[in-house]
Amino acid sequence: MRISGKTAVITGGAKGIGATAARIFCEQGAQVAIIDFDEQAGEALAQQLHAEGFDAAFFKADVSNETDVNHAALLINEQFGKVDILVNNAGITLDAMTLKMETSAFRHVLDVNVTGVFNCTKAFLPSMVEAGAGRIISTSSIAGTGGNVGQANYSASKAAVIGMTKTWAKEFGPKGITVNAVSPGFIETEMIKTIPEKVIAQIQQLIPYPRFGKPEDVANAYLFLASDEASFINGIVLEVDGGMLK
Ligand code: NAI
């Protein structure tokens, strides 16, 4: 039990990496609030975890919508009384080569992946500041550090996550709150199912380790940064990519 008694909020927790993180955090003793805009998947996961004896609940919110996020934060603080850990995991892609990328697609990805992280961090910080302790973990990507063809919007958003992480590590470190990012490589979730098979084979050539990542590889990195073992780690970007050449 590495995060026993802690309350964790996981955004984008209904599916993919976030859903795996919600389960692992529950198994490690945390109370888990899942935020997602997919109500059906979020409710189903929370009910399943509840049926297994875990303390998990679902809160519907679009992270890019400040009003939604503040409302969810109010309900979560009411239900759990505090928030110790925030995992800013929700994220989307809307890929296109730059000349074909609509400005609306550029803005939308930044709204979710950047403003969403800002909204959630701002909403859950007061509880951590009051406690004089807290953990904020946000999800970047190898696309944020290395760039990726067809992902000008996504790469920009994930680089911004690193900038915000390093700023907040300096702003909130003195208040006992650590802020770190995890940078996944290619992880087997819905997100990469849109990539053509030929491209997948090319990507595998770039990963020194002989497989793609699994959701639990990233969820375990979130867990480490949320655990007591990581209490002096602040402002880092933890790469979980099998050593992918960038
Ligand atoms: P996913 O698409 O499987 O799951 C994302 C979850 O976020 C879904 O439950 C979705 O409903 C939710 N979500 C999306 N937009 C939302 C919004 N506006 N408000 C609330 N919830 C929203 O994605 P996956 O693969 O689990 O990705 C999780 C994080 O990891 C994302 O930030 C992604 O950018 C990042 N990542 C994923 C990689 C991969 O290979 N799968 C690689 C690098 C980073």
Describe, in short, the structure shown.
By secondary structure, the chain is α/β, with parallel strands linked by helices. It has helices at about 15-25, 40-50, 65-80, 105-130, 140-145, 150-170, 195-205, 215-225; strands at about 5-10, 30-35, 55-60, 85-90, 135-140, 175-185, 235-240. It starts with 6 loop residues before the first strand and ends in a 6-residue tail after the last strand.
Key terms for this structure?
246 residues, binds 1,4-dihydronicotinamide adenine dinucleotide, 7-stranded parallel β-sheet, 48% helix, Rossmann fold, alpha/beta, 7 strands
Topology:
Blueprint lengths: L6 E5 L4 H12 L3 E6 L2 H13 L4 E5 L5 H15 L4 E4 L14 H29 L2 E6 L2 H5 L5 H21 L4 E8 L12 H10 L8 H12 L10 E4 L6
Parallel strand pairs: 1-2, 1-4, 2-3, 4-5, 5-6, 6-7
Helix pairs in contact: 1-8, 3-4, 4-6
Question: How would you describe this structure to a colleague?
Answer:
- It is an enzyme of class 1 (oxidoreductase).
- This protein is α/β, with parallel strands linked by helices.
- The chain has one domain (7-233): Rossmann fold.
- It is built from eight helices and seven strands.
- The chain has a seven-stranded parallel beta sheet, with helices on both faces.
- Helix 1 packs across helix 8 and helix 3 packs parallel to helix 4 (103-131).
- The chain starts with 6 loop residues before the first strand and ends in a 6-residue tail after the last strand.
- The model has no long low-confidence stretch (mean pLDDT 97).
- 1,4-dihydronicotinamide adenine dinucleotide is lined by residues 12, 14-18, 36-38, 62-64, 89-92, 112, 116, 139, 141, 184, 186-187, 189-192.
